[in-house]
Amino acid sequence: MPEERNGLPVNANGNKYTIDLPTFSRRLQAFYKHWKDHKDELWGSSDVLVVATPPPSEDLRYLKSSALNIWLLGYEFPETIMVFGEKNIHFICSGKKASLLEVVKAPARETVNAEVVIWVKAKNENGSTQIDKVLRAIRSQPKSDDRDAPVVGNIAREAPEGKLLEIWSDKLKGSGLTLSDISNGLSDLFAAKDKNEITCIKKAAYLTAYVMKNFVLPEVLKVIDEEKKVTHSELMEETEKAISDPPKIGVKLKAENVDICYPPIFQSGGNFDLRPSATSTDDPLYYDSPSVIICAVGCRYNSYCSNVARTYLIDTDAVQTKAYEVLLRAHEAAIHALKPGNKVSDVYEAALTVVKRDAPELVPHLTKSAGTGIGLEFRESGLTLNAKNERLLKEGMAFNVSLGFKDLQSKSSNPKSQNFSLLLADTVIVTDGVCYVATSVSPKVSKDVAYCFNEDGEEEEPRKANMGPTARASTYSKATLRSDNGEISKEELRKQHQAELARQKIEETARRLVGVGSANGDGRSTVKSASELVAYKSVNELPPPREMMIQVDQRNEAILIPIYGSMVPFHVATVKTVSSQQDTNRNCYIRIIFNVPGTPFTPHDANSLKNQGVIYLKEVSFRSKDPRHISEVVQQIKTLRRGVMARESERAERATLVTQEKLELAGNKFKPIRLHDLWIRPNFGGRARKLSGTLEAHANGFRYSTSRADERVDIMYGNIKHAFFQPAEKEMITLLHFHLHNHIMVGNKKTKDVQFYVEVMEMVQNIGSGKRSAYDPDEIEEEQRERDRKNKINMEFQQYVNRVNDLWGQPQLRLDLEFDQPLRELGFHGVPYKASAFIVPTSSCLVELIETPFLVISLSDIEIVNLERVGLAQKNFDMAIVFKDFKRDVMRIDSIPSSSLDGIKEWLDTTDTKYYESRLNLNWRPILKTIMDDPQQFIEEGGWEFLNLEGTDSDSDNSAESDQGYEPSDAEPESESEDDASESESLVESEDDEEESEEESEEDKGKTWEELEREASNADREKGNESDSEDERRRRKMKAFGKARAGPSSAASKRSKFR
């Protein structure tokens, strides 16, 4: 709850609160409607409702007055009196609170047609004057049932506290007004929660269950494992500290929004009290065999409560085990009975039926209720889950389903073990379908809560597979990590490490997102705008007019178009498309469409931004009797436009390059380290024959050059991010690969990856010389020569790499750089782009350096890895790599064989990379956009834990405050691999293909479907195909379809014989 400073609610940071007006309006309207609809049965026929909130208190207490404050206004307003009438709403409060409440006047008037009147009580006043005025206003309210005075509804059970409320109570009782209790009305009003309330309950429940699973249980197991003497009260204090600071235990919720519902409860040693009001004693935790330990934790988030209770069994006997199994089944039956339309009593009856059926002797020990409603109050009156409550369940209700057996006796003669009780509690939300158990993160089945110890105190293995990773690696119990042979399994160790990585990743992401904010970019510099394209600087430069025909000026890159008797020049870059066509009368048409700002798919250039408000020419069409001239003009415009666009594109690419330092040649310092006869990728381009070159290592960089003077590339050492050496083993090439920080130009290509390689064997094998024997001496000799050549090339590369490493290690360079070599034994097959490739990890990267485009992913750039489509029935799975720079697209590697799953997990874990698993592919673009739009909310909702299948801090609802982090969604099952494949495919098309596609697209742009249909019809008419009716075309299509189906159907019939 908020503190009060000078009478005004403030948060922990000292910032003033603001009232959420849309929520206030919506709930005020619901309040008045509920009051009107249930005035007699729930609101005591009240004409006026009075709610007085007492001063703040250090004690944990749940008051309906405080609950109404929070529900309606968002915060608790201590020492405030609210009076709700049909036409007026009165507030008696201090000046600071009055200034905060001013904003509700307009919404109240618009929503319920009630005027808000605020009576300010000064510090030196007792409020008596304001109270008298409000009482006079109450007497003037409309009366019902012809009464002399209106009926005033108040909360009868709340005793007045503080001077203001005591004066109010005395004057109200002495006023002669009829009083009635409105507690039932408020309880029913709060019973069904809206989406925002459910979000708060889910967050509170997640924190509660997380603390129970990942803090309480490890602490208890650590005490048992180390045989410490720790009291119940000490465990209570440690747990309360963990709840008060969620980020310390890995839950990304703000500490000021979190509180406890009650002091955590720890009970053992034969003394048990199953009430929430129970306390943790100063007795030490008793864990000798057999023993029972009860732990209960309740947390609040934004004042909304949740609860969880678990019973842990230590080497229990048959009586205790049977009782727990019966309690577990009864508890589940009660939860499943929480369905809209059922009676509240049905929940308790469902649990009682199970106990009567399975263990009738335990019926007298069963608690008298199965829990209560939960929300702003820990125990909502009117929603007790007992056998007498006939109220109906509604969607949106939340319950603390708490069931237990008390005062049971075991077979042990030790009093501390003989007397025992059992308790289970969960926070459950009633939904339209199956109810939602919000605290399911904390397991309760027998295999997760029962532990066995032998007589010597040495832990044996749990009865079954035990629980998963806990919150802190240091608190792991030996009992939870034993495999069948008594050793810690690799899977358990990996889970431990991943749990630790999850906490570190959330903290790291929080620092990066919240601290840096939107400043975190991709490191690319801003693209400079292209220079203005000018064809003619003055009219005098125009060529002399000839005929009034379209002309193409190749030298000035312009086209001259006759418009109203004048030749008007246009720079060719302003042309979007140009096309020609011919009609049946032998007339030729040329159509030129220009780039016009504001049309779809047209980029904004500098000229359009400068010349706003001017009129643009969108398109022109001309008719000609000379088809040859039209064809020549169209071809000239296309050729000229293609050349200009290619030049400007290269200029724009070069404008984004980071200026490199100048290469310092070795000269007299040392002899350059050379490696000869290398090929380069990407190549220099051009139509000339490609030549091999030499790679030289100089003082501050590499230089690769061929015998041609213009084929030279300089790579500075400071620009190298990663260097790789991959010798040929099963590949055809040995290579050196450099992944750079900033792009460089290789020929006319902009790239961050440069590779130098040598082919270690012939790429073409002669198969025309007939069949050769495996024992052919010539064949054996040829294979030996290939092996010798491969070994020789690998050795030359290795020597070159060693010498360069020595150079980089010299003090004057101070380079933290070294050639990395892929680890083939960790490699796996996958599809990073279009084709399957063998992807290999290195010590710092994940690479694929054989097929183009190359794949180089730095482990330091990876945020998390999500393994998608992971399942027992799947032969393949996909890997989605999310980068720390959320502006980068997620990298997908598809179709990885399932046999590689364990190896990939082990490698990721070894490299301290956090990974998750999911059954379906996720749509990552909207996910990353949501994170970047509101990083603070992403951190508050648990970060990446929404990928955790076990449940995380989020909400499945799609409200503004919904927390999507902890519940995986199946709403986007489609993979984006097809989109990614299509995008990557477009990136690797050849220049010729691009030109052809551009020409083809230019022919079709600008034509409507009607025009195309008309042209096709004219073409058919000229060919004499009018008789080719639609029915005939359909018959031909069906015939072709039948032939196409014949093969597969016959094959299928043959296969069926072998079944």
Describe it for me?
By secondary structure, this protein is an alpha+beta fold. It contains 24 helices and 39 strands. The strands form 9 sheets. An 8-stranded mixed beta sheet has the order 27-26-25-24-30-29-28-31. The protein has a 6-stranded mixed beta sheet with strand order 6-5-4-3-7-8, sandwiched between helices. Strands 9, 10, 11, 12 and 17 form a 5-stranded mixed beta sheet that branches. Strand 32 and strand 33 (837-841) form a beta hairpin. The longest helix is centred in the N-terminal third of the chain and has 32 residues, at 195-226. The protein is extended. It starts with a strand and ends with a helix. The model is unreliable at 1-15, 454-488, 516-531, 950-1005, 1025-1029 and 1036-1059 (pLDDT under 50). One of its GO terms (molecular function) is hydrolase activity. Residues 828-918 form the Histone chaperone RTT106/FACT complex subunit SPT16-like middle domain. Pfam families: FACT-Spt16_Nlob, Peptidase_M24, PH_SPT16, Rttp106-like_middle, SPT16, SPT16_C.
Structural class: alpha+beta
> Could you give a short account of the major beta sheet?
8 strands, mixed
Helical fraction: 25-40%
- Radius of gyration over C-alpha positions, nearest whole angstrom: 39 Å
**Continuous helix count:** 24
| Large-scale geometry | extended
Q: Distance N terminus to C terminus? A: 71 Å
InterPro entries: Creatin/AminoP/Spt16_N, Creatinase/aminopeptidase-like, FACT-SPT16_Nlobe, Fact-SPT16_PH, FACT_SPT16_C, FACT_SPT16_M, Pept_M24, PH-like_dom_sf
Domain Histone chaperone RTT106/FACT complex subunit SPT16-like middle: 828-918
Biased composition (Basic and acidic residues): 1004-1026
Family: Belongs to the peptidase M24 family. SPT16 subfamily.
